[in-house]
Amino acid sequence: MSYKMHILVCGGTGCQASNSQGIIANLKEELTNKNLENEVQVIATGCFGFCEQGPIVKIMPDNTFYTQVKPGDSEEIVNEHIIKGRKVNRLLYRDPENKERVSDSKHMDFYKKQLRIALRNCGLIDPENIEEYIARDGYAALAKCVSEMTPEEVINEVKFSGLRGRGGGGFPTGLKWELTRKYKADQKFVVCNADEGDPGAFMDRSIMEGDPHSVIEAMAICGYSIGADKGLIYIRAEYPLAIQRLQTAIKQAEEYGLLGKNILGSGFNFTLEFRYGAGAFVCGEETALIHSMEGHRGEPTTKPPFPAESGYLNLPTNVNNVETYANIPVIMNKGANWFNKIGTEKSKGTKVFALAGKINNVGLIEVPMGTTLKEVIYEIGGGIKNGKKFKAVQTGGPSGGCLTEKHLNVPIDYDNLLASGSMMGSGGMIVMDEDDCMVAVAKFYLDFTVEESCGKCTPCRVGNKRLYETLDLITNGKATMDDLNRLKNLGQVIKDTALCGLGQTSPNPILSTIDNFYDEYTAHIRDHKCPAGKCKALLNYVIDPQLCIGCTLCVRNCLSNAITGIRKEPHTIDPEKCIKCGVCLTKCKFNAISIQ
Amino acid sequence: MEQKVKIQIDNHMVEVPKGTTILKAAQEIGIHIPTLCYMNLEDMCITNLPASCRMCVVEVEGRRNLAPACATPCDNGMRVKTSSLRVLNARKYVLELILSDHPTDCLICAKSGNCDLQNLAKRLKIREVLFKGEQSNYILETSPSIIRDMDKCIYCRRCEMMCNDVQTVGALAAVNRGFSSIIAPAFNQALSESECTYCGQCVAVCPVGALTENDHTNRLLEDLADPTKTVIVQTAPAVRAALGEEFGLKPGTSVTGKMVAALRELGFDKVFDTDFAADLTIMEEGTELLGRLTKFMEGDKNVSMPILTSCCPAWVNFFEYYFPDMLDIPSTARSPQQMFGSIAKSWWAEKMGIKREDLVVVSIMPCLAKKYECSRDEFKVNGDPDVNYSLSTRELVSLIKRANIDFNRLPDEDFDNPMGESTGAGVIFGTSGGVMEAALRTAYELYTGNVLENVNFENVRGLQGIKKATVNLNSFELKIGIAHGLGNARKLLNEIREGKSEFHAIEIMACPGGCIGGGGQPLHHGNSELLKARSQSLYHEDASKPLRKSHQNPFIIKLYEEYLGRPMSDKAHHLLHTCYFCKNSEIQEQ
Questions:
Q1: What residues of B are in contact with residue A457 (Cβ under 8 Å)?
Q2: Which of A347, A579, B168, B276 can pair with B487 through a Cys bridge, CB separation 3.0 to 4.6 Å?
Q3: CATH of domain B218-576
Q4: Considering the entire predicted model, what is its pTM?
């Protein structure tokens, strides 16, 4: 059946949460009512990336990009756009600069600087239909590998591409494959690390939801090259949609003979299984991941031995993350030579980031390595929300560092971020504005690592706890400058002595904020002030007697009976009783209450 | 040929076989890098290597962060610094972090003076713990044998390794995560409700005071001071082989005579020997073996083979929990400790005219499971236990020191009679293979009617986890197996369950090395040489005895003549045998 038009509706978890399924149902019903169900197809795709404006609906072939669509908009879309050929103007994206409506994604700043390789099929194909993947050159790379190339040639191609691990470590992928191939064993494993754990990050989830076959194909290619006939996908149980899409995709690939025995008549066998994680951050560390897959406590072990030598069930195992795999089919199809021209000298290709925080265009982006933070934040991200001032950007997830104004022109790649005191990580990018207290930010991240530490090694188990406690003292105005010194020294020792990547990086948010925002720390400690006005314990709510008319509204709303005064005369707040909830501030009609 | 690598450690060059860790290479040239979680009993293939305490970190040139010396193999050309300022500083911080979550009441800690953490704090000259904050706060748990004070746990995981990897008991494991990580039975059960066998190997390896024995020394002092009570003591064979270590004597020094003298000094009315009961055990168990064997050879299909020894209470707990389907396999003979108690409170008490309620039977054991064993209902008469309570070797050490006894100046004294007399066969009960060797000496003579000339069964000796031997009994090839460590026992038990066992008789001891490595012994601190020396000491004592076969013990002969009749008689059955129960509540419910 050939359709004249296609309506692509984002079926990613984010847009589903905003009822994109309701949009799909309504569109289908509307089309059936108009007897168009055989001419116009509605497809649930993966993530378009522009989550800020979701749910996204895209009409093909005219490439119209509707934003913030609601199920109730379906009738209008069908009547106006599909039947009458007129765009629904009110649903088009409005350019924040010139306020003009933009009808297609190519002309949006959000997409202009992006280059979608790993996300190439997300928002374009129906992830539950293998035919659509195949139509986009899907499985051509696997066919090419198993029929025309030796495993060594495949590995060389990956090596030559310069692809590095996208999970955070940045280890050269081809080299990892080569090492795993080197070890002799009757059984080897290909493992996909889909245990995406950074708070707010959804790069891998989006790829699995939007383009599951790219991961499956790449794992098969990896299996062929390292000599493994079994692949395992370690995925957190909190990703039900990704699991379901992968399951569907695996079933289809098996039906098409692209997984299973004697793939494409090559004699190569490859099967895939799932292993479910319970959502522990540390299980993203490859040795912890392997222990978790084996049914053991999810905690890391010291390397060497590396998984390439002794991994799952003590057998050679290659572990790569979802995004790394998603790059592989394209590299094999277009050639390493094409891929290694993208990016910087030591970091090739693109990187997907989950852009979040105080930024206008929250979403999922993919940019060539070497793009500057400024381009990402101001051009793609559309700048800081509500016209506030940019303060910092946190890259690399909870164990990354906070970069500042002076780093905005740094071209993003593994080495530059590391040199700047942060790291690539798996691709979380959280933007902060002038209202964010950097001490509180560091404390937030430490709270996360303290919670997620497996507890195995002393520096991480006790050290991070002590770091957190010291930060707590600072944000409560109870720390001394000695505490600050100790914080810094301990942070460095933890980096130097912790067993796994989690502990070795967990002090980064502290160390980078001490480096870049030292004054903010000293303000908390010496002056007992939080310059950003975030640390409650350091805030004082006061009533200006000049402005207060004694209306008693604040008294009636105060939750802790901290405000006293005679009617029609200026009131006062007892700082001992005040719980700093801020209710009085919002209630006062005379702007008499302020924070000092 | 073994490949060698050359590395530089501090200012020294050292050549070691490839794969050697930095820690070991450094040790070879006299550089002792501090460790805490690391433990290696090489001869027994018991290693704890989580590389998690991070005390042993060293600087390796070219490496971004510090490396744990215990788990980092030497690479050719490697340059290592073990005491640079960076390393010393990191080590100090790590230790301070551990101490920041550890009570500092060392003065009143059970492990004071014998604590690896305390030693490190001393060595690294920690004078102040800079990091203050929340401290772990757990409820102190007391079981019949073991006390868990998890506030003191430093999470070295040694106990977990022993309980799971070596013993395969699985009572203790890491639970929770981060700062709340702790070693505990599943679902925060009490130890007494868990799979715990009370083997005490967790206690034997705990570097701090988190796991200690349930101490009965004060109870004993009260009984000794009570003029209305007759207090007698029995001492297990393995105790005399290790006790001297705590008084500065060379490991393996046998201190039987001094131990007896010390016990008299402490005020015991009679000092007897569990070895006597060991000889008695051989009479009963050996007879039972021969009985079952004869029936088996006659083709009796109802007889269960092989027969398993039952001297070890932790082993009994283990099969009652994990192999309740095979409760008819172990010998019904009680352990020597319980045989002693039973005979002391019947034959001996009657002979001496002492009322049961006035008699206190105390045992000194290398074992913590014995503390539990004497509280079992089967071993009580009208609620009164045959053995009132059991003290570990370590508790005896503390009593001797508390009583101002200069142990090394004590004269050698002899045990009291009749229950102090023993043969060499009873002595070797204390080491792996000893029970079987003792049984063979008697079984051979009883079965064949011939005199056994060479009583030394060398191939059942040694620290190998599972040992096998074949003994020719009048052309019948008796196949015997020996396992020490419950993990090894499990292997043999699984074979039996699957019907694949080749053995007629099997000796099992729960602790690696047998009782010499028991959970109540002086701490080995990871030194397996100690265990070897203790074992040798028992074989020496055996060799020096005039009588080396249990059935030759004159007082055993007398006991049967006067009281029991013959082995396996009704009276013997009543006093010296027992029965077993299924301890696995899940199976019970089914």
A1: 51-54
A2: B168
A3: 3.40.50.1780
A4: 0.93
